[in-house]
Design a protein that fits this description.
Elements lengths: L1 E2 L2 E2 H15 L4 H19 L1 E2 L2 E2 H35 L2 H4 L8 H15 L4 H15 L6 H15 L7 H9 L3 H5 L2 H22 L14 H24 L3 H4 L2 H13 L10 H19 L11 H10 L5 H11 L4 H10 L9 H9 L6 H7 L1 H18 L19
Helix pairs in contact: 1-2, 2-3, 2-14, 3-6, 3-11, 3-13, 3-14, 5-6, 5-7, 5-10, 6-7, 6-18, 7-10, 7-19, 8-16, 10-20, 11-13, 14-18, 15-17, 17-20
């Protein structure tokens, strides 16, 4: 069924996204209402990947449950991790090493960028948010929050272990060097939005110039942070190298994170009271992920650099996992361009990536689409400039199709 040539599914999804943008104080209710409306419409009048009714819905859930479980495990687990990091006392010692002016904020964003090249982008963003909370006495500009999310997404876009989409490409046969090319665009974008975001933050609240008196590091909490991060990285790399199909069947990365949290809880007790708030934010993202999974997207436009550029804007509101899977099945892309587009593009809206949703759980004021777009205008500018720098420097060199199908497991959208 369609209206004016547009499938009703897409209209319902668009209304859901509009509701999120307009009613940013009720995002969870809007997302769950949209999910229910789309599911009921497809049960009554549509299908799920060609299978109608409850069997189709059950098949979809069977396909997506690993994605959902991994995301939930990571978002909740990294909420506890960021609290451990903040309470470790290390952020309070950073003024000793960071410049006192706007360049201190730029260095913080650069640190997030580097961390995300080998860590999950959710973890990198939340660590960045924890550092910002201390260094700026919790007065953080929304433009700087957008910069933290953008730095985490840009940093992971050129590494096959830095983002779920690039890991999917790696499993499908794309060489790490092809993905690494994305850094030509990502570094360019970082230099642009990083300067604007750091200056916005400095104008609102200058960085802490001196360490608080008596500041010290709790090495046990830092050790717990390291154990949790190593568990996530180790599970991801181990199964990708040994048997990547396991990642499609079992949410091993989320399980690894929670095993690490459980084993280290006797060392330092996590702040369990953070979980209810983190759970509500996580349910919002998972509702949008499931809405996107139910959209009847079977094919992308013909592969070209123009299509890749457009996918970056689409990924700001649409889950980038199915977009990447479709691109891998279709083939014909220059994978460095695609990695940058779908990885960094989600930074343009706060709910466009799991890193943005995770950071919005820490800073609820970031949940306004209007405020994010107004304060984070430099993200879209940096995205476009970075893309065309990549095009000018390396050129568009598409590959043939690399696989008949693509894995769907995820650590973050």
């Amino acid at each position: 069924m369609s209206f004016a040539g547009v499938p009703i599914d897409f209209i319902l999804f668009a209304l859901t996204l509009a509701g999120v943008a307009l009613f940013h104080h009720h995002t969870l209710a809007v997302a769950l209402t949209g999910l229910a409306a789309i599911a009921l419409f497809k049960l009554g009048f549509g299908d799920f990947g060609g299978v109608a009714g409850v069997p189709g819905l059950w098949k979809l859930l069977g396909h997506e449950w690993v994605t959902v479980a991994n995301l939930l495990g990571l978002l909740l687990g990294f909420a506890l991790l960021s609290d451990h990091f903040e309470r470790s006392g290390l952020p309070a010692l950073l003024p000793r090493f960071l410049p006192d002016d706007w360049k201190g904020g730029f260095c913080l964003l650069l640190l997030v960028f580097v961390l995300s090249s080998f860590l999950d982008n959710i973890a990198a963003a939340m660590i960045g948010g924890s550092m910002a909370a201390v260094l700026y006495r919790r007065r953080v500009h929304i433009g700087f929050l957008a910069g933290i999310v953008a730095a985490s997404n840009a940093g992971g876009s050129g590494s096959v272990v830095g983002d779920t989409t690039t890991t999917m490409m790696w499993i499908a046969g794309v060489r790490p060097g092809q993905v690494f090319e994305a850094y030509a665009a990502a570094v360019t974008a970082m230099l642009i939005f990083g300067v604007f975001a750091a200056r916005q933050q400095h104008a609102l609240q200058p960085i802490m110039k001196d360490n608080p008196e008596g500041a010290s590091v709790d090495s046990a909490r830092l050790g717990i942070v390291a154990v949790i991060l190593l568990a996530a990285m180790g599970a991801n790399i181990f199964f990708n190298l040994r048997d990547a199909s396991v990642l499609d069947r079992v949410p091993v990365i989320g399980i690894a994170v929670w095993l690490a949290i459980g084993l280290t809880s006797a060392w330092r007790r996590p702040t369990w009271s953070l979980l209810p708030g983190a759970f509500r934010g996580s349910m919002f993202l998972l509702a949008l992920v499931m809405c996107a999974a139910m959209m009847p997207v079977q094919k992308l436009p013909a592969a070209s650099w123009q299509t890749a550029l457009g996918l970056g804007f689409v990924s700001a509101i649409f889950d980038n996992i199915p977009l990447t899977a479709l691109a891998l099945r279709q083939g014909g892309y220059d994978w460095g361009f695609l990695a940058y587009a779908v990885g960094f593009g989600g930074s343009m809206v706060w709910f466009g990536s799991s890193a943005g949703v995770a950071l919005a759980n820490m800073y609820p004021e970031a949940r306004s689409v209007g405020a994010w777009l107004k304060a984070g205008w430099h993200i879209a500018l940096a995205y476009v400039i970075g893309f065309f720098v990549l095009l000018a420097v390396l050129g568009w060199h598409p590959d043939a199709p690399v696989a008949p199908s693509a894995p769907s497991h995820t650590t973050s959208p």
